[in-house]
Amino acid sequence: MTAVIEARGLTKSYGATRAVDAVSFAIQPGRIVGLIGPNGAGKTSLFKAILGLTQFDGDLRVLGRDPRSERNELMQDVCFIADVAVLPRWLRVSQALDFVAGVHPRFDRSRATDFLRKTDIKMSSRVRELSKGMVTQLHLALILAIDARLLVLDEPTLGLDLLFRRQFYDTLLNDYFDKERTIVLTTHQVEEIENLLTDVIFIHRGHVVLDTAVDTMAERFIQLTVTSENAARARQLGPFYEREVFGRVAMFFDGKSADELAPLGELRTPSVADLFVAKMQGVA
Amino acid sequence: MSTPEAAATAAPPMTTTNQQSVQKILVTLFRREFWEHRSLWIAPLIVATLMALTAIPLHIGNLDLDSDSQRYFTPENRLGWFTLLIWAQTVPQYLVMSIVASFYFMDCLYTERKDRSILFWKSLPVSDSMTVISKLLVGLVILPLGVYLLAMVTGVLFQAIWSIRVAAGSLPDIAVGWNTVAWLKVQGLMLYALIICMLWFAPLAAALVLISTWVRKNVFLWTTLPPVIAIIVERVAFGTHYVKGLLEYRTWGIWDALGVNPTPPEEGLHHGRVVSLADLFDNVEMGKAFLNVDLWLGLAVAAALVFAAVRIRRYRDDT
User: Would you say residue A239 lies in a domain?
Assistant: First the structure.
């Protein structure tokens, strides 16, 4: 199957600094991919390259198109939410619907109004009168009503309270996502979305440090918790990261068999969040 | 709209090509500008209302006692006064419109970056050229045509109030009550002048739009200071004033371009003759304006400036 996003040697430089450094990856259709990295890792540069908002070097295809030269065609099939604060404050809710309906050939207005009806948002309200959470709901309502192939979200829930964040991702999963669509989202709050993701791409200082499907993560990564007596023996097997937890040591292994590690202590599959920390500290 | 099933069976291309019609997108973009920049319609409406109502408190005192002014209010001048009254009340309207339009142009591609909404606008399938051109058209064509229609209405209202006051004896009976042919000719003359103005001022408007999408802050200073500095530097360094001359020409040169032959002085106001604008309409050389080379040169420059603005906005974001 053709990849929705395919990057080869993608590089974004700002002067001498390389925010994204010769990155290669492919994202398949029907996946929910988390682009995860600490602040300043290059997430936003990558996001802007994918959406044709910035120049870059290397090769990048989004839905088979080059976002630099074919942005106008691309935006018919790509939606994005940059973050919560970009809806203009003067815009009325009804005007937002009018506008998107007027410019987007595949906007289903009734879908957006149905969604808004379930919220406290009034049609006559201006964005400036809405709470931050409501603005996100409004933006989500607009996006959900567009029949797009790819949805890109850059820190979409930044600064929202837990209730809105939970609601946001639930809606995304239940009302929007299907096997024809692909969602790419960047965040640094890993814990909250790890159950949602089918794939993770970790980026750190402009490099991809991990690119894996979540369901194959268990085959590759093992978190071994050992007592300090066994620590030295376990260490010989080459964990890529370890940390101490309540007098015991948690070690992270990549591509080691469970049989080999089991005699040394407790085994489990690391969570995305744990793996993220391990990977980030491991390469630091 | 394609159902998921249909999309699943369909082979590549990976993107669909059903387009919103250009016309529908443009109309939406135009509406958007009037939502955001409410001064575009509020300011003209306020001035128009004021102009229509000026005929109510207007006071012209003691014409009979002033022997010098007496000679202007002859029966031959009654048509001239009629057309002049219609014209005079439009002047403040067009003046305010130019100010509103200038600030609109400076603002139109600047605030979207300041409030970061550019990331929302750019998330929708609207090209940069469509966006930039829609903004230029709003300020350069739609706003002036709107003000033209408003001025037409207020002119009639003004004239109606004037006539009532003449009948009541509180204003002097110096103009004809109504003359449809003259009125139409004045409207025709003003529409013609308006169209030439749009073309003539296109490069200035495009320059403001370009600055608006270019600068990162202080758009007003970036618009006003460079020409002032250029004029001063040129004067100090070379003792010349080409920049000043060019700016003046692009601002006031319109009067030459219009081809409206001014009344010879010996027939003008000094000699007690009030020229009817309807006569001006009869004598205007419309072809001359459209054959003006500078008018077309200006349009070429405007096109280049718009092209530059489109290119700059292409990779503009919220930073």
Answer: yes
Interchain pair B117, A88: CB under 8 A: yes
Going by C-beta distance under 8 Å and a sequence separation of 6 or more, which residues neighbour residue B143?
B40, B44, B97, B100, B101, B104
B318 touches A at CB < 8 Å: yes
Q: Cβ atoms within 10 A of the Cβ of B230, count?
A: 15
Q: For residue range A65-118, what is the model confidence (pLDDT) as tens digits?
A: 999 999 989 999 999 988 767 899 999 999 999 999 999 999 999 999 999 998
A18/A154 same-domain check: yes
Residues counted in chain A = 284
Handedness of CA B263, B264, B265, B267 (dihedral sign): negative
**pTM for the full model?**
0.87
Specify whether the CB–CB gap between A181 and B14 falls below 8 A: no
CB–CB of A180 and B20 under 8 A?
A: no
Is the CB of B4 less than 8 angstroms away from the CB of A53?
A: no
Range of the domain at A181: 5-205
Task: Give the per-residue pLDDT at B272.
Answer: 63
Question: Per-residue pLDDT tens for B101-132?
Answer: 999 999 999 999 988 899 999 999 999 999 99
Domain-ending residue, one of A147, A176, A205: A205
ω into residue A270 within 30 of 0, thus cis? no
Strand-pair category, A221-226 with A248-254? antiparallel
Dihedral through CA A103, CA A106, CA A107, CA A110, nearest 10? 140
Which tens digits make up the pLDDT trace of A135-147? 988 998 999 899 9
User: pLDDT, tens digit, for every residue of A210-265?
Assistant: 899 988 888 889 888 888 788 888 888 888 888 888 888 888 988 888 888 888 88
Closest chain A residue to the Cα of B115, Cα to Cα: A88
Whether residue A132 sits in one domain with residue A38: yes
What pLDDT is recorded for position B5?
Answer: 42
A135 and A245 fall within a common domain: no
Q: Which residue of A has its CA nearest to B124?
A: A75
Cross-chain Cβ contact A86/B116 below 8 Å = yes
CB pairs under 8 A between A and B: 117
Phi, psi of A63 (to 5 degrees): 50, 35
